[in-house]
Amino acid sequence: MNPGNAALGRGLDVLVALADPAAARDGLGVSRLAELLGTDKSQVSRTLAVLDQRGFVTRDPDTLAYRLGWQVFSLAALAGDAPLIGAARPVLLDLVAELGESAHLSVRQGDQVLTLATESPAVAIHAPGRVGGLTPLATTSAGRALATGLTDDELQAVGLGAYLAEVATAREQGYAIVREEFEPGLVSAAAPIHDAAGRVIAAVNVSAPNFRFGDRLEGAAPIVAQAAAAIGATVGGAVPA
Questions:
Q1: Domain topology for 3-68
Q2: How does DSSP classify residue 202?
Q3: Hey, where are the domains in the chain?
């Protein structure tokens, strides 16, 4: 095999290994990566150095474990979902203008939520989202909205077995509401975005401090659902009856 192809393949294998949910949470060291890839540590170390330099991986200075870097998430956000992001941007801005709180677009990545786009109001205290940031599927409104497209077996597989009732409620209502489960003082409402076949492809959510948004959350949820429907319609989707 061409040495360049081998190095490229090894780099891709490293990224795939780091994309495992356990690795995303705890990271992987050089020795463990070498073991998983069936190669020696020196090769893995050189590969990681190149990926780290370019932002594709990042190393924890305390544990020395590696995780996926910001560049991976940025590329994913800009490439595969560019039409979705383009359709969502004006809708997110409208949500911010109407509700005065932060609005976000996200997709599911295994048992986590990946933020693709975010818009925030010009207020001192808000709930900003980080493009490329990962949050739990189970305890976020966006996660539960995204989970409405999964079967009970799939929900079990991604760690939502204890949240079947909550996901069922979100599926029935067309939106999910979470109060201070993910983070103390933070509340949010989210709704799934469907494609033309009725599959859940993404979610839109609005999040804000409880002291300012808690009493408006129930009223805001249907507005978020309408925003999700508008995005789905723009990208050729349709809201299931």
A1: Arc Repressor Mutant, subunit A (1.10.10)
A2: E
A3: 3-68, 75-234
**pLDDT tens-digit map of 153-163:** 999 999 999 99
Token readout for 174 is: 């067309």
Q: Tokens standing for 15? A: 């990224």
Distance CA 147, CA 129 (A): 20
Q: Rounded to whole angstroms, how far apart are CA atoms 205 and 176?
A: 9
Lookup: tokens for 183: 């983070």
CB-based contact 135:109 (threshold 8 Å): no
Q: Which residues pair with 108 in a beta bridge?
A: 113
pTM for the complete prediction? 0.68
Please give the Cα distance from 108 to 126 (Å, whole number). Answer: 23
As assigned by CATH, the class of the 75-234 domain is alpha beta
Residue ranges in 38-151 assigned as alpha helix (H) = 41-53, 70-78, 82-99, 141-147
